[in-house]
Design brief:
CATH class of the largest domain: Mainly Alpha
Structural class: mainly alpha
Helix content: 55-70%
CATH superfamily of the largest domain: Winged helix-like DNA-binding domain superfamily/Winged helix DNA-binding domain
Distance between the termini: 64 Å
Number of domains: 2
Radius of gyration: 18 Å
Number of strands: 0
Order of helices and strands: HHHHHHHHH
Strand content: under 5%
CATH topology of the largest domain: Arc Repressor Mutant, subunit A
Length: 196
């Protein structure tokens, strides 16, 4: 293995946590996310010759992962649990109020359109620059900025935050866990009762 291949291998291994977090935000299922990361790395390794040294490897990997996800999505078109009955049978009430706030955030995040959620995750959770996110999504920087702004405004609206500055920073942990079937407003009312 030459130096370029060895360096690329190390860089790809270093990108795995960010790839997994992005895969979780896309698929919302840990097992699918792991499969998506594995497919991304296999496809990147098989097409290593098409990578231009000196360009952004991380953005290249995220683009591959995004394209794989959308190809699979078009093929599967699985029926979601729209009414929440299956999720309600699997959920358990959280023990911590912060955990419940995070669940509200996750539910609200899941209601965003895919393009806005994707932009918000790339910028907020993955720590990419607007330029990198635009490259991954294949659109203009202004489009990414607009999607992130619309996503933040919509999240604040869904979560009932009157003051836009009241939007807390994104947690360091990737988004995963169980989903509650209750709408965010109902969960917020229950938490308010518990705090009294």
């Amino acid at each position: 293995m030459n130096d370029v291949a060895a360096r690329m291998k190390n860089d790809m291994l270093a990108a795995i946590p960010a790839l997994r977090a992005f895969a979780l935000s896309l698929s919302r299922k840990p097992d699918r996310a792991d499969d998506l990361v594995q497919e991304t790395l296999m496809k990147a390794w098989a097409n290593m010759a098409s990578f231009v040294p000196g360009t952004n490897l991380r953005a290249w990997l995220f683009t591959i992962q995004r394209n794989i996800f959308y190809s699979q999505y078009r093929k599967r078109r699985e029926v979601e649990d729209a009414d929440g009955h299956k999720a309600a049978m699997l959920s358990s009430p959280p023990a911590q109020l912060d955990h419940m706030d995070f669940q509200d955030f996750r539910i609200a995040l899941d209601t965003l359109p895919v393009d806005q959620r994707e932009a918000l995750i790339l910028i907020g959770a993955s720590g990419m620059s607007y330029e990198e996110a635009a490259e991954v999504c294949g659109c203009a920087i202004g489009t990414i900025k607009s999607r992130v702004n619309r996503a933040r405004v919509k999240l604040a609206e869904i979560l009932g935050l009157d003051n836009f500055e009241a939007v807390p920073p994104a947690p360091d942990a990737p988004v995963f866990g169980q989903v509650s079937a209750q709408p965010p407003a109902a969960q917020a009312q229950e938490r308010a009762k518990l705090r009294m």
